[in-house]
Design goal:
heterodimer; A: mainly alpha; two-stranded antiparallel ribbon; B: mainly alpha; 2 domains
Chain lengths: 295, 339
């Protein structure tokens, strides 16, 4: 049936798969942004640069230290997360009580520094990162060919997203976190170390970005600019979903990835801009975002 | 947004007097400068200074951080360059493939710049109407996303020539009188445009309209409760800022004789934020100083490639952590006046 309108099912499902992959990265990144925003009230402009740093960490671990993909999947987010903890302790905490815009400007500056340093070191060309041997090859599903690694990325991202949602919405620690988001002074009065929680939250959000970077390394090449343009789309995703809800970020991320994939099939000229157009429409109809609360 | 509040002084007659003196000193200095400093550098600096002043009108006086101002600057550059060089208008509707095609031929640089300003203002009206539906950091993210959309438009639209940009734009005779291919004539035309734009902004922020903008910056709910239609004021300020950014962008396209993707890229939006932050947000002269410093730095450090990006990032971090008032803001605080 699809062949009748000049689109092969192979191309359609291929793009949908790619859309889902991008959607998993959108979900992981916007989830991290939402968690950070909830606790610190800043938009982390360095998120894209830290996503890229995660990918480079994995690349360096494999080529410099001989650490394989599976260890990098754990270690790279830890390294970048620790770096995030430093950023928060050394810089972001000094901005407490100031206008939120300063946090945005500071993290934008950090993004420029990180990206500039990597570009000096590695130029602009991409570095290849091999798919781990356990996940090479793929499955013939009849209507399409499904590479194992891509299936892994989608399933694993989904698991991480849902685990994060569970941790925040259903556990005791998550309850503390949500309480501290609403009223930090009150939560401190109950004897909970809120500044430590804030720092660890930033580290965790950043680690999610790095994790997305490691997952992306074998699919997209590892490039210093890989995060810069990507993060702007993620911002649009965040505006569409609204940062109020964890599940909202996850759903919006995957959904927009799929829509982008579909656009690539049916009207490729608009595939770069479709997310922004959807953002404009959502702003017109529901200014607070699909899952956002009124501010 | 009290963050942009500078000295906390209400501009009195004496402060206005100071500001006017500095304004005339700046004008005199710029009139003499090309005899000692490379005019091309000065013209570029003035274009960026006007761009930064237009941006400062929003962040400094309305408290709106636009992270997408490159869309006005860069898009206006394309419009000015296109009309000064070719002057064709092609409204072919995609998918259908029909539409009017008008050929004006290369038009006078003054009208090309005017068209660029109008185009920017319209773009500002459309994007501003969307962006002001959200506040604070969302406003920044929305403007950034919309400017990325304009970037992709400029990458794909036929008249912008994608990666190549519009090259060797003829300079022509400004209003049929001033031959812009003569560098000094060009310089004084650019100076006149800069001073016009600067003065327009200065008058705006000291007008009753400007006072309402500051009231919105300080306490938006209160301005609403006083009966002001806050969204209309914000939108008007946004369109004005967009139009002036377009004036800067259109002029810059004629100065450098090209329009390219660099000027619509998000990094250009970041640069104008940096210029304003470094010079002093919410100060009258800060953006000018900030622009001169950043443009000079880029010229001198051009051979160091990506280190420029790193240094820009360091300046961002240093400004936010160490001197949030910026160069002019700190000086003004020392002198206990507003500049």
């Amino acid at each position: 049936m699809l062949d009748l309108i000049g689109i092969s099912s192979q191309a359609l499902f291929g793009q949908l798969l790619l859309g889902l992959i991008n959607g998993s990265f959108y979900a992981l990144l916007s989830l991290g942004l939402a968690v950070i925003f909830g606790m610190l009230n800043i938009v982390n402009f360095a998120h894209g640069a830290l996503y890229m740093t995660g990918a480079f960490c994995a690349w360096f671990m494999l080529n410099g230290l001989g650490i394989n993909y599976w260890f990098a999947l754990v270690l790279a987010p830890l390294v970048v997360g620790a770096f995030g903890v430093l950023i928060d302790r050394l810089m972001l905490q000094r901005l407490a009580g100031l206008d939120h815009l300063y946090g945005l400007l500071l993290t934008f500056g950090l993004a420029l520094i990180i990206q500039g340093l990597f570009q000096n070191q590695f130029g602009s060309s991409g570095l290849p990162y091999a798919i781990p041997p356990q996940l090479t090859g793929g499955q013939h599903l009849g209507f399409m060919f499904l590479p194992n690694y891509r299936a892994w990325v989608i399933v694993f991202s989904l698991v991480v997203c849902l685990a994060t949602w569970f941790a925040i919405e259903k556990t005791r620690l998550g309850a503390y976190l949500r309480a501290a988001t609403e009223n930090p002074a009150m939560v401190r009065a109950f004897g909970i170390n809120v500044p430590l929680m804030v720092t660890l939250t930033y580290g965790f959000g950043v680690a999610l970005a790095a994790l997305a970077g490691v997952l992306a390394a074998p699919i997209n090449q590892v490039r210093p600019q890989m995060g810069a343009d990507f993060i702007i789309v993620v911002f649009a995703v965040v505006v569409i979903g609204g940062m109020g809800s964890i599940m909202g970020s996850i759903v919006t991320g995957f959904m927009l990835g799929l829509i982008e994939g579909l656009t690539k099939v049916f009207y490729p000229e608009a595939s770069n801009t479709v997310v922004f157009v959807i953002m404009a429409i959502v702003l017109l109809i529901k200014p607070n975002g699909l899952f956002g609360r009124a501010t | 947004m009290s963050a942009a509040t500078q000295t906390g002084l209400i501009p009195t007659g004496a402060v206005r007097h100071n500001e006017m003196s500095v304004f005339f000193a700046m004008a005199a200095l710029l009139a003499l400068a090309p005899f000692g400093i490379y005019p091309f550098f000065l013209m570029q600096a003035m274009c960026f200074a006007l761009f930064a002043c237009a941006f400062n009108l929003l962040i400094g006086y309305v408290g709106l951080l636009s992270f997408g101002h490159a869309m006005f600057f860069g898009f206006a550059g394309y419009i000015a360059a296109h009309f000064a060089k070719l002057g064709t208008i092609d409204f072919t509707i995609p998918l259908i493939g029909i539409g009017p095609h008008i050929n004006l031929g290369p038009i006078n640089p003054a009208w090309a710049i005017l068209l660029a300003v109008i185009a920017s203002a319209i773009l500002g009206l459309l994007t501003g109407a969307l962006a002001i539906r959200r506040q604070g950091i969302y406003f920044a993210m929305i403007t950034l996303a919309l400017s990325q959309m304009i970037y992709f438009f400029c990458l794909q639209a036929p008249f912008t020539h994608g990666e190549d940009g519009i090259q060797s734009v003829p300079q022509g005779r400004f209003l049929g009188l001033f031959d812009l291919s003569h560098q000094m004539t060009m310089y004084y035309v650019v100076l006149a445009i800069f001073l016009f734009g600067f003065f327009a902004i200065y008058r705006t922020i000291n007008s009753p309209f400007g006072e309402i903008l500051k009231a919105i910056r300080e306490n938006e709910p209160r301005a609403i409760s006083l009966g002001y239609k806050v969204d209309r004021y914000k939108l008007a300020a946004f369109v004005l800022s967009a139009a002036l950014a377009g004036l800067a962008g259109g002029t810059k396209a004629l100065v450098s004789q090209n329009a390219s993707l660099t000027d619509v890229h998000w990094s250009m939006s970041g640069e104008v934020v940096l210029m304003t932050l470094l010079g002093g947000m919410g100060t009258v002269f800060g953006p000018v100083i900030g622009a001169v410093v950043i443009v000079a730095m880029q010229n001198y450090l051009a051979q160091y490639g990506q280190w420029v990006t790193v240094i820009q990032g360091i300046i961002f971090v240093a400004c936010v952590l160490l001197f949030r008032k910026g160069i002019i803001g700190e000086i003004a605080a020392k002198l206990k006046t507003a500049l």
